[in-house]
Design brief:
- This protein has about 190 residues and is an alpha+beta fold.
- The protein has 3 helices and 10 strands, in the order H-E-E-E-E-E-E-E-E-H-E-E-H.
- Strands 1, 2, 3, 4, 5, 6, 7, 8, 9 and 10 form a 10-stranded antiparallel sheet that branches.
- Helix 1 packs antiparallel against helix 3.
- The termini are close together.
Length: about 190
């Protein structure tokens, strides 16, 4: 009996070790940006204008910068304090450490509350160096993006990648080992 218990505990320890270690990624998949150090974002009656917006960007410990391309976007409609934007694409670039991420930011809506404006949309990655690829931003990835402005100045924002698939892979391997332990237990 003690031998079987020791065997089961050993197999369980081996199966769960990869599951616990798989979530130990020290670099978050989210890129946080803002405040802007120059430029403005203005919301007019029929358009939103992005002009010379640059600022700070972060992904974990290293800090860097971002820039957002100049453009004017038409407002297609509104629903109270939420404005829906027409088709748009602004080039957005992040530089953090030795890595660079370039993509197209498409803003779908803007919700206003007083002098605050919340912009929501997505970011399509067109170019990425290995540091960004390894944290969930491969070329072709379409990820969520949002940012807040106050009186025309970008105060904060984030680009959120889908989780890197390794944790799921390790969890699947761990579950497979548990199933194998169950099969072996029945045979012995």
């Amino acid at each position: 009996m003690a031998r079987r218990l020791f065997f089961a505990a050993s197999v369980l320890a081996v199966a769960l070790a990869p599951c616990g270690a798989s979530f130990a990624n020290p670099i978050p998949t989210q890129i946080t940006f803002g405040p802007s150090t120059s430029g403005s974002i203005s919301l007019g009656a029929n358009t939103v204008t992005f002009s010379g917006v640059t600022g700070l960007a972060y992904q974990g410990v290293p800090s860097g910068t971002f820039s957002l391309g100049d453009s004017t976007v038409n407002i297609a409609g509104s629903n109270g304090s939420t404005y829906y934007l027409g088709s748009n694409s602004e080039v957005m670039t992040f530089w953090i450490g030795a890595d660079t991420l370039v993509g197209d930011l498409s803003v779908a809506s803007v919700t206003t509350v007083g002098q605050l404006a919340l912009f929501a949309g997505n970011f399509l990655v067109s170019s990425a160096t290995p540091g960004f690829i390894n944290t969930g931003f491969p070329v072709g990835a379409l990820v969520d993006a949002d940012f807040v402005t106050y009186k025309g100045t970008l105060s904060s924002g984030e680009v959120i990648a889908d989780p890197v698939p390794e944790p799921g892979t390790f969890a699947l391997v761990g579950c497979g080992l548990l199933a194998l332990a169950g099969v072996l237990r029945r045979k012995f």
